[in-house]
Amino acid sequence: MTTVTTTTGKGMRLVLAGAALGYGAHPVLDEVRLEVAPGEVVVVVGSSGSGKSTLLRGLAGLLAPRAGRILADGAEVRGPSPDRAMIFQEDGLLPWRSVLRNVELPLGIRGVGRAERRRAALTWIDRVGLAGFADRLPRELSGGMRQRVQLARALVGTPRAVLMDEPFGALDAQTRAEMQRLLLDVLRDTAATVVFVTHDVDEALLLGDRVLVLGRTGGLRSLTGATREQIVKEL
Ligand SMILES: Nc1ncnc2c1ncn2[C@@H]1O[C@H](COP(=O)(O)OP(=O)(O)OP(=O)(O)O)[C@@H](O)[C@H]1O
């Protein structure tokens, strides 16, 4: 069993110890073993339906394992936590709240005071390139801008892990490349552990310290250092 002391401001160690995940009578992943080191960026690729989102939901605490264990810094994951922020492909922004009030949300949940909330949210809005858009509503923004807001909202509370489920999957190629650059840039400033799910092999090679392929049978294989062609062949 991995036991790691919790240090504020550091990335979190995430462990799937023989975890089985599924829905009702439908098993999806069986006996998954994975250890993500603090601060590591792990990218999971795999064909559609292989269970990438299911794996992430388990780590997020949105889906309980049927067998085995899911651990964050040695403690059983029992539900979602602001320490493990999640970013989805479809933006999860609240449509009636401004950019500022969306980004402030995780801090409000943590009971951070109004002035500090505003200061931190505006800093992140600026950081993701949306200075001047704080008062806009999500529907007044492009898809790429909404993903920038999601990134700001995920990082404003200095989470120790960020779980990203095809966050750039719906964006056009140019916007996607801009968002990948922005993500690499902001990750340099945070110590957060990242688990990033994508269909896109080039994105995986660009972003990941480690690339894992989720095979059709649910097995997780490390293909770090593999070429694009080798990974594509494994999908
Ligand atoms: N809420 C659910 N209830 C029942 N079955 C589900 C549910 N969500 C996903 N599944 C099933 O679990 C399997 C894995 O789905 P999952 O979304 O994890 O795959 P994925 O690899 O993320 O796919 P994609 O790349 O298409 O998003 C699929 O067979 C899917 O139909």
From TrEMBL:
Q: Where are the transmembrane segments?
A: none
- SUPFAM superfamilies per record: P-loop containing nucleoside triphosphate hydrolases
Q: Which SMART domains match?
A: AAA
- Which GO terms label this protein's molecular function in UniProt? ATP binding; ATP hydrolysis activity
Instruction: Determine the domain of life of the protein's source.
Output: Bacteria
> Which InterPro entries does this one have?
AAA+_ATPase, ABC_transporter-like_ATP-bd, ABC_transporter-like_CS, ABC_transporter_ATP-bind, P-loop_NTPase
Residues making up the signal peptide according to the UniProt record: none
Q: Record's Gene3D superfamilies?
A: P-loop containing nucleotide triphosphate hydrolases
Q: What sequence ranges are listed for the domain ABC transporter?
A: 12-233
Q: Report any Pfam family annotated for this entry.
A: ABC_tran
User: Keywords assigned by UniProt?
Assistant: ATP-binding, Nucleotide-binding, Transport
Q: What is this protein called?
A: ABC transporter ATP-binding protein
What is the species listed in this Swiss-Prot or TrEMBL entry?
Spongiactinospora rosea
